[in-house]
Amino acid sequence: xxxxxxxxxxxxxxxxxxxPVDELRAGLLASFEHELGDAVTGSFLRPGVDLWIRxxxxxxxxxxDVARRKFxxxxxxxxxxxxxxxxxxxRYEDAxxxxxxxxxxxxxxxxxxxxxxxxxxxxxxxxxxxxxSRRVGVTLKSDVPDSMRIPSWVPVYAGAEWHERETWExxxxxFEGHPGLRHIYLPSDFEGHPLRKDFPLLARVxxxxxxxxxxxxxxxxxxxxxxxxxxxxDAG
Length: 236
What we know:
By secondary structure, this protein is of the alpha/beta class. It has one domain (about 1-230): Beta Polymerase, domain 2 (2-Layer Sandwich). About 20% of the residues lie in helices and about 20% in strands. Strands 1-2-3-6-5-4 form a six-stranded mixed sheet. A hairpin with a 5-residue loop joins strand 5 (about 120-130) and strand 6 (about 135-145). Mean pLDDT is about 85; it is low at about 230-235.
């Protein structure tokens, strides 16, 4: 399930160039695979850049515990989620008056879940690092099950408390064991989860995007002057 990005094209002619080696991150990946076994469901190593490891949802908190207590990744960077489903509303730059909403809904799509792969619409993302000695980090991922429930990281990384509250609020993912999931940004009676791709931003559906405007000529210019200058500006 693991892969290494060498930056080369599959169609490129064969050469004697040595593939880059990243012993530090490769060692981290091997350690995670040893500790978690089959719970590591995917990985991707880009030498000199980063390491992505995807784990089973049931091992999400265990992965955090292993990262901190066994591998010294004590710095908590962030935790969030991603909704890989393309927006059923299409581009919001297209106003409802130009593209009827009915034509944007119920479109077929294929999930593209980024580095280390994935099998579900929603995925957890978190990054932890050793910033003291090795100066290396790892991005951990997990597929969120249909129950939309996953273990909380707060017992391992206290800094995850606000991140999980935001993720619960914006994506509707419940973190089991979190000390107090409650709203940060939205009113307590707010319905829906604004960072889900199928949450309609109605203000963008019913009127044009503010940046979509007709460009008017400057005072003293005739329409089309700029295009003519662009085409013939080097002629002299």
